[in-house]
Each structure stands twice: as structure tokens, then as C-alpha cells.
Amino acid sequence: MRLPERIKRLFQFMPPSDERQFILNEESDNVDYDVRQEKASEGTPLVSTDIEENEAYIRKRFSVPLNNDFIIRKLRLRKGRRAFIVFIEGMVSTDNVDSNVIRSLQELPYFADDDIYKYEEEMSERFISHNQAMVTDSMDIVAEEVNFGAAAVFVDGFGKAFSIDIRSWGTRSITKPENEQSIYGPQEAFAEMLRTNTALIRKIIKTEKLIAEGVKIGTISKTRGVLLYINDIANKNIVNEARRRIKSITMDYVISIDEVEMMIEEKTFGITTQMLKTERPDRVARALTEGKVALILNGSPMALVFPTSIFELSHAASDDYMRVPYANMSRIIRLITTFASMLLPGLYLATTLYHQEVIPTYLLYSISASRENVPFPSVIELILMDISFEMIREAGLRMPGPIGSTLGIVGGLILGQAAVSAKIVSPIMIIVIALTGIGSFATPDYSLGWSYRILRIIFIAIGAFFGFYGIAAGIVVYSLLLGSSRSFGVPFIAPLPKAENNSTDSSVFVNPIWRRERRPSFLKTQNKDAEPKISRKWKQK
Questions:
Q1: What is the pLDDT of residues 234-258, one digit of tens each?
Q2: Which residues of 429-465 are buried (b: 16+ CB within 10 A; e: fewer)?
Q3: Is the domain of 457 the same as that of 483?
């Protein structure tokens, strides 16, 4: 509000407003139940033998009847013994509740009060007709299981509760990968269900040595996940470090695996990501066989793989399924597009502003003629077109699929042609921006593509002020930053500069599969041999 208006409102009478205004107080009212306060107190609440106490505690903890999807189903067993079942509607199978829980409870024999404590385990073993049931005396465990989709049974006189795994919520079916599409190899992608994702990996790696270690992240949400590694291959130090970082996360709520990535990464403000995030089970399985560790979180259709390197981030999922000449040709093209997306605009500015002597004479004449009527300097012209291209890219991502692709093509053509016709930019600038954009789309890893987009802006500024010398210095500084970075103790540019056992063979160029005899030496795996020296025995005489 401006100063004259403030003075006017101060001295002039203003009629009161009939509208009720909401004012947010600094301190809210105390909640009935806060799990953090309970964790701070000594001990944990236990299941009582008095069913009324248990019901009162459950109603308070789950805010019943305020939570209208929380169901408390009361029962009368034989001889009038009381019991009740609690579950969250929509997260359990109601058919299983009817057939495997309620019907079984109604068939329970009568237990005398003096013998009732003998039958807590027997009740779970004989009368709960479901394949997964757990007996516990902790209310915290009961609440955690119910929040994760289980049903809990309380029986009067029993000092323990029975948690029954009858989870059944809506899930997305297994579909094709969206961000890592490939003509070759499997066509399955992770979904949001934890056990579905682990089953996809176990379907590929059929060995009892594959460990799926359960983890819980979030002090309140207790989001479940698994830490995957092959027990006789992965380095124990990497596994222990991954376990330590994950267990050290003290956030209240963890929603997705992207938050976990940002919590366990070593350099928060580093331009380049330090972990591989993939939606392909086959890629995770291959990384596990090399000795790496993966993390899968319930509710996230992605997996984190670590440690990783800059070379692995630049690899495509199809490289392992293509013949060697085809895969190497693909990597050469991606290497060229990587440099084009990162350095081409900066090199163009440096060349046209400071180093015109490196341009052939007739090409220099053509560039000068095309820029004759452009009113802006090359720097402003390039920034305008780069921002316009980024706007089209972001708009295309936010729009529905068919509309988004159409918007990108039509918008780019119309915008470029209109800009050239209006003499705002030169045709050569449209070519530079188009090649840069195409190169950025060829980057296999989406996070790595973001780092190249940031680096492109940096190199544009460096090239505009310092020419080739500034770009060369920028490349050196970026290389030094990469060389000093580590991913879970492994150098980010591994296997460079020191490589053993030909571990660089498939880092830059694809090596024939029958020559991949050793696992990467920089991972220091327990079992270093991936295959025998002669793996194609049919070639032996």
C-alpha cells in the first residue's frame, strides 16, 4: 500500500466490513494426539487386557469419529466375549475381512478366564485363516500396520493385538517405461507398489543371495522401502554407508524417493546429480549384479542406484541389448549431442564476437549478412531464443501428451519463422538454438539433462565475456569439480584416472559382452569375476 493511501486510511473514517476475515494465529490449539510427544516419553503404549481401554485409545489416536474412513467393527464372540476390528476403508480387502477375519472369529471356542493367556499364539495359528498375521503387544506397531493397510483385531482379556495383512488398494498396472524408452530389451517399468517392484527385480535375478532389506523413512509417515543388494557381491562398506544415511533421515513425512535422494546426496548444490534414478527393473538388476546398491520406496515408480558415475548417467538402457557396432555408434552420437547442448551457444558467441578469424570467409559474410537488420546484440538475441525454447519445452511437458508434442513442433516453427521475418533474430541463431535443443533431448538421464541446461547458460555468459579462453577455463573448472566429487565414497569420474582390470572398457564405448570378465574395480566388490575367461566355449577347439 502506498504512503498517501496509508495516511488517508489513518485519518479518514472507514465503515466496517461485513465480511468475516480469517486471521491465522501464531500458535494453534493443542492436538488430542501427537505421535512425536509419545516417542519422546519413556516406553511405548501397550495393549491392555481391558477391551474398553483399547477401544478408547484407538478412538483417540485415530480421531474417531472425525476420521470417517476409519472403521471400528465390534463383535460378540461365544459366551458373549467382546472383540473389535479396526481398519481403514479403501486400504483393505473387505472380502478378506468378512471371510478370513470375522467368520473365523465367530468360530472361536470359549476360553475360560484362567486359561485365556495360553491361547494368544494359538488364536493366530489356528483361527486366523490368513497367510500373514502378527501378534504384538505394542500399540505403536498396531497403528503403524493399520496405517499401512492392515487390519487389527482386539479381543477382551487378551493383552495382545493381532495384525492381519489384508491390504488391497488401487494400483497402477505395469506399463512401458515413459522416460527411458527403448526398442531393445524388456518393456516393463516400475509401478507405485513396493512388492510389485521388488517382484519385478526378483523375476530377473533369481537367487537367494539377493537381499531386500526393509527400511522405514520418516518419523511419522514411516514410509516403507527396501535396500537391495546381492549379498556375496556388494561391498559391505557401501551397504553400511547406505544404511547409515537412510536411517539418519529424521524428516516427519517422506512422500517420494526424490526427497530421499536429496537427503542422502553429498553435494546439495552440485550441478550434476550424484545418483542414478531409473524406472527400469532390468537396469536396476544389471547394476545389482555389478555390485551396486538400490533403494525402492513404496509409492514411487523409480529406484535409486548408487554409487554411480558420470559415464553411467550418460548411458542409455538400450546399450546393453544392442550389437557392439550399433551401441558404439549410438554413444558417439550422444557424445556429440552432449557437447552441442552444453557448449554450442557459448562457442557461437565466442566465435562471432572475439574469434572471427576461425570462421571461413564466405561463412562469415553469410553470418554478417543475416544479422545486418537485427537490432539486438548476439548475446541478447541468443538469450531471447534460449528462453523462448525453454518456455516451449516446459509448456509441452505440462500439457497432455498429443497436445504437448503438437505445441512443441508448431510453437517452435511458428515462433522461429515469425522471429526471423520480424528481424528480431537471425536465421543462423535459429539453427544454433535448434541444434542445442535437439542435443538436450538426446541426453538419456533427465537429471543430467538439467545439469547440461544450467551449464549451457554458464558457458553462454563465459563465452560472451571471455571468448574461447573463458570457455576453456570453464571446462577445466567443471572437470575439476567432477573429479573432486564422490558418490558413496566412489570417485564420480570412476574408473578414471586409474583403472584396473580393463574396467574402462564399457565406460565410454561398449565392450563385447564376452569380454566383460571382471566387475568394475572401483566398486571393490567381494566377487570380482563376472564371468570365466572363456565364456563362449563353443569357440574352443
A1: 999 999 999 999 999 998 899 999 9
A2: bbebbebbbebbebbbbebbbebbbebbebbbebbbe
A3: yes
